[in-house]
Please model this.
Amino acid sequence: MSVRSVMILAGMLALADPPAGETGPQDDKVKVLRSLANRIGRVLGAASACPAIAQARIKSVAEKVSAVIINSAPSEEEGAVILKLLASNQVEGTQSILTGKADCTTAEGELADLEMASSSSR
Model:
């Protein structure tokens, strides 16, 4: 698993399951959520532009990430803003494949890392 995947997994675990009695500063939580939305959105977008990658795989990760965002955001409004950020980064990820800045082999690997990370966080 790549360093990036470990960081993503750590972020998902920390946000999805904070220790009892510990909440941490809201600003830090929002920064982590935004960072996840940026990175994961690009991975999901890139993967969606690759015909060999099943859309069901992408949808599964997207649903898990969306749930983490919704359940971890300090407010509904902040959650909605972060979900929009996720969506805009998906567009950027798609464009990166279409313009040749990224390739489907890399997108496949990064999606597989996210699948592992998200299944480990359950």
